[in-house]
Design goal:
Mean pLDDT: 82
Structural class: mainly beta
Distance between the termini: 48 Å
Number of helices: 2
Radius of gyration: 15 Å
Number of strands: 8
Largest sheet: 6 strands, antiparallel
Order of helices and strands: EEEEEHEEEH
Length: 111
Amino acid sequence: MVVEFLFPGKNRKVHLLLYPAEKAVRCAIGTIGEVLSEKPAATMPDAVKAAFHKVLELGIPLRELGCEGETQIGFFLTIRPQGSVGERYPTYGQFTADLPGSDFEERMWEV
């Protein structure tokens, strides 16, 4: 199964191949429109942390997306069996995620 997280505002994507039988995941990072290998490297890029069993857990450093210091990012994802047409979530528009922003430590500081 192929899962892609696309970040249009940053022209970045994270391409994942999931292998449910082995509970394994392979990953590649690139720009939207770039053709990434259908067989990404067996090891994760150092930047990305991922785990897959029944749930996919994914950690992508903000610097990989070019959004350090920003307060929000938009994205959508696609899911498809290898070699076939898949689905997009959300169907229209994007999910948005709040980010720590450059003043995160200042906002979280308490005395």
